Each structure stands twice: as structure tokens, then as C-alpha cells.
Amino acid sequence: MTTITDQNTQSFTPVKIIWIKFCEHKTALLGLAGLFLLLIFILLGSILIPESQANQTDITNRIQPPSRTHWFGTDNTGRDQFARIIYGGQITIVIGVLAVFLQISLGTLIGGIAAYYGGLIDSILMRFTESMLSIPSLLLLIVVGKYFGKDIQVLNIFGRTFSGSVPIVVLVIGATSWMYVARIVRAEVLSLKEREFVHAAIILGAKNPRILFVHLLPNTVGSLIVATTLGLANAVIMEAYVSFLGLGVQPPTATWGNMMTQSISYIQGGLWWMWVIPGFYIIYTILCFNLVGDGLRDAFDPHTNESYV
Hints:
The radius of gyration is 23 Å and the shape is elongated. The longest helix has 37 residues, at 81-117. It has one domain (10-60, 71-308): MetI-like fold, CATH 1.10.3720.10. The protein has helices at 14-24, 26-48, 51-55, 81-117, 119-133, 137-147, 165-175, 179-192, 196-203, 208-216, 221-244, 256-262, 273-300; strands at 4-5, 11-12, 155-157, 160-162. With 309 residues, the chain is mostly helical. The chain is 66% helix and 3% strand.
């Protein structure tokens, strides 16, 4: 990897330059710190509080305001809101990560193959991408969640109980969000495949799959990192939206979205903790992901690195 050296002979690698630019973005650092605190909250909370407490009902303590016993109050069945925020946050983040992994994988593969092979393959894959863009992903998520999400049995994985609708939500979000990634990867691979290092690899006898997956796609990692952070924010809000409508993740699994659903009847009743607290965590998480994404976008912008040359 090449380095950039200034007048004081101080060496700057591309990774170091990106990190310096990111650290100069104060709001991005604020978002990164916010995500770090959120992860500590939901991970440490799950160690201290068992999952059974998040699903334990107690009618005698229903719709209680925040107190020393129940820090975030209780819901309409007496379940502790603090515990449900912790475990709901885990599911929300897991859904976002898995959906974005699927989104990035599909987009990178389709965009890379289309750009590298070109011709008929490029035309077919890009027309398919454009047709997918015409399908409203949110509408598809609502329809699939309504007709299939509730019919899947509860899943037990590593001792944790998950609603059968979780994989449906992950699949639909990931499978309807990869098109923008495919376009980004295609544009970058088109420019990269004419570079000297690619021609050198061809002369040395490298096969097409090796050139694509070893020499070309790794050079798109900057754009993919930015797309990942912004995609996580989009996945969180989509999951929250359909769960709020009652068509996403189903009980007994808690998410911030379906916690908001339970608060609909109480919004005008002065029971603010039932909707303010989960709503705050949704907004907080999306804001942190967007701040980090904006910082990474500026850090990976080559024009902002010219001062280090």
C-alpha cells in the first residue's frame, strides 16, 4: 500500500488519512460514541437482566409510571419496559445488521459481475436492478409480513426465543435494498477494471473470478462501508415502521417498533413513557448511524484528502 509523505517526512497511509479526516468530523465522533454507549447498554443489560423478565406479565402492575422498581415503567400487561427496551434493542440491531449484510452481499455481487463482464450480462443484471427499484420495498414488506410473518412458528436459537417473523423481515429488507449498492459497485468497478494493476493481473494469467473478487471488489470497500452505516439506519426505521403497524416482528419477541404499537391506545391518556421511551431509542439509533455515515462519507472522499499530499 502506498503512503503519502509531507514536508516533515511524516508518513500517512490511506487508512491513517481516512481516520484523521473522520476524527476531524466532530458530529461523526459523537454518533460513534452514541452507538458505543447503545451497544454497552443492550449487551450489559442482557447480562444483568434475564430475558424472562422482559416477557413476564404482571396485571397488578400494569401501566405503572417510571419508578425505582420499574425504571421505564410498565406496559398494558405489566411487563417491565426497561427490560423490553434492552431485548427489543438487541432484536432491532440484529435485524438491521443481518438485513444490511444481505443487502451489501447482493449489491456487491450483482454490481461487480455486471461491471466486469459487461455486454449482455451487464444489460440483463441492470434491467433486473431497475425493475427491482420500481417495487416499493416498504409496501412489499407490509404485504409479506401480513401474509407470511404470523404463520411461522416461534424459533428457539441459543436459548433465545424469536418470533418466526424475524427472518421474514430480514429477508424482505435485505432483498429490496441492494439496488443502490449494486449501482455504486458497478460504477466503481467500471473505472477500476481499466487500471494498470488489472491489466497486469490479466497478463500474469489471473482468472476472471480472482480478478473480480481479489483485485476489484476489495477496492470498493470505502463506498461499501458508507453504504453499510446508512443502510443500517434505513433498516432500523423500516423494521420499526412495519412492527408499529403490527405486520413486522410479532410477540413474544420485543422490538422498539412493536413496543410503540402497544402504546397507540394510551398516547392521549398521559402514559407518555409507553411511547416516548421506545420512540427516543429509535430516533437516537437512526441519528447515530446517520452521523457516522456522514463522517465516513467525508473521510473516504478523495478530494478531502488533498491537504495531506
